[in-house]
Amino acid sequence: MSNQELSDGGACCSPLAREPLTEDWAGDLARMFKALGDPVRLRLLSLIASHAGGEACVCDISESFDLSQPTISHHLKVLRAAGLLDCERRGTWVYYWVIPSALQQLSAVLLTESGPVVPSETCTSTEVPA
Amino acid sequence: MSNQELSDGGACCSPLAREPLTEDWAGDLARMFKALGDPVRLRLLSLIASHAGGEACVCDISESFDLSQPTISHHLKVLRAAGLLDCERRGTWVYYWVIPSALQQLSAVLLTESGPVVPSETCTSTEVPA
DNA sequence: GCCCTGATTCGACATCTGTCAATATCGACG
DNA sequence: CGTCGATATTGACAGATGTCGAATCAGGGC
């Protein structure tokens, strides 16, 4: 995977709204978004991100779900394959943590002309320059 | 399944990293992320967002894909059901446009402690799993 | 060495998803 | 009114996905 598109040369807006995504990049982003497209995985990510120290072991977070441990492990694997998590074994336990740059990249892609704030509620006007 | 309850109301950071997502919210967000978890839909969204005027008719964007017209229509329906797009019929054509607040919400959720701030605890390695 | 605990992998299953061809709907134009 | 072009809906189908139980792997303690 190539996550180098973060620093787009001279791009003032999000690439999503600036120009059509290339197929390659769309596929790359879609894999990450698809990993987030499951409530269990979203909660897993949130649990890990909000855990003390920014990391958590499986035994700790699996208690928050009604799912079997293999299922939790499967979801963690999906998140890791998508590049959103990383993990490390320490003795008996395996600790997971979030990869901040991955989330940041996704967040940046979604930042369109709307920007971080929406001052005007009447969005009917199309203010996008041609 | 007793998660730690809300600490306090004033959320200064992203809720994803502040505290575990509630099941309701995770389900809501997951529906939107799942809609983005397909390269075709991502490109559709990008094509519409980057189109002149911020909106595009189906006949225009469908040319960029090798997919059948019903498939394009299906993906547009998914994006609309997720609250990411809205559409309007004008004569023969149907125009679609992006709902900025939806993308903004998703972008905000992903803005964790990473953001503009450089994390100091887990900066030992930035390599992603292969 | 042997077992015990934590975590992953495997195999199987039902369900969901993406795709197409065929058909239907909706509006414009003779 | 009939037809035509643009979208949407339906039905069907292969492939992906989420889930579990069982088996397996990895360390620690006896």
UniProtKB/TrEMBL annotation, chains A, B:
It comes from the Bacteria. Residues 21-118 form the HTH arsR-type domain. SUPFAM superfamilies: Winged helix' DNA-binding domain (SSF46785). It holds the Pfam family HTH_5. Keywords: DNA-binding, Transcription, Transcription regulation. This is Metalloregulator ArsR/SmtB family transcription factor. PANTHER family: ARSENICAL RESISTANCE OPERON REPRESSOR, TRANSCRIPTIONAL REGULATOR, ARSR FAMILY.
